[in-house]
Amino acid sequence: GDGAAVQTADKAVAAAPNNADALAARGWAQAGIRQWPQAEAAFREALKADPRHVRALVGLATTLTEQGRPAEAEAEARKATEIDQQAAEAFAALGLALLKKDPAKNWGEAINQAQQGNFLNPKSVVTQLIVGQIFEAAGRYNEAISAYDKALEVDTGFTAARLAKVKVQMRQNPKTAVAEACKVAAELAASADMQMLCANSLLLSGEYQKAIHYLEKAAQLSPSMSEAHL
Questions:
Q1: What's the rounded Cα separation, in Å, for the pair 90 and 85?
Q2: What is the DSSP letter of 207?
Q3: How large is the average pLDDT for residues 12-22?
Q4: Which range among 58-67, 159-168, 173-182 shows the weakest confidence by mean pLDDT?
Q5: pLDDT digit string, tens, across residues 59-90
Q6: Number of C-beta neighbours around residue 141 at 10 A
Q7: Can you tell me whether residue 155 is helix, strand or coil?
Q8: Average pLDDT, integer, range 91-115
Q9: What is the DSSP string of 138-184?
Q10: What is d(CA 16, CA 90) in angstroms, rounded to the nearest whole number?
């Protein structure tokens, strides 16, 4: 989630403009700071250089899902699973796309696909994150937290899992989650999502004045985050 990752990826692309790995890295760096259209463009450039680049296909599926285009995302994720049947994150991305496409109808298939990714590589933090998100969508919060914890066992600094875990804790008991949300926001000062989560927890508790600082910080870190401006 550090903006410096984009600058580093840009250097890689400048050194090798047609290198699929460099272009895919740029896409993931941009996705990390929620620049979804830019990330999509980078992944498509990577796939022009190498149409079978699984990491770029997974990235493209992820960015399409985040932009509210799950049917397109499903198609890209399926391509990735067909090219590499051992790609854990491809199965996880497919599960997430299916969930977003129709949560009620597709939940069972979505969790099966994501758990297949988990079976292939239980140490994939992205796969564990998606397993948690799918459980969370069904209101199965304890299982969601378990998946997020597994991701954090592998990578204690995995911001997305920490963010997701605090979100679940807020759903379970908003008032008791305020301290944890704002503690993590202080530790992850470069994460706009985390600043926003802390702000939301304060708003839910009626602490509006305290929330302003975190809202302003979220808007500064991610100018495209409409929720923070609102």
A1: 9
A2: -
A3: 96
A4: 173-182
A5: 999 999 999 999 999 999 999 999 999 999 99
A6: 15
A7: coil
A8: 97
A9: TT-HHHHHHHHHHHHHH-TT-HHHHHHHHHHHHHH-TTTTHHHHHHH
A10: 26
157 vs 28: CA distance, rounded Å:
17
Q: Sign of dihedral through CA atoms 166, 31, 26, 72? A: positive
What mean pLDDT is predicted for residues 150-177?
Answer: 86
What is the identity of the amino acid at 109? E
The pLDDT value recorded for residue 191 is: 84
Amino acid at 20: A
Amino acid at 15: A
User: In this structure, what token pair is assigned to residue 180?
Assistant: 């944890």
Q: Any idea what DSSP says for residue 19?
A: -
The CA–CA distances, whole Å, from 56 to 47, 66, 70, 127 equal 7, 15, 16, 16
Identify whether the C-beta of residue 166 lies closer than 8 Å to the C-beta of residue 198: no
Instruction: Round to whole Å and give the CA distance between 115 and 93.
Output: 11
For 85, counting Cβ atoms within 10 Å of its Cβ (0-12 exposed, 13-18 middle, 19+ buried), the class is: exposed
Structure tokens at 6: 């984009």
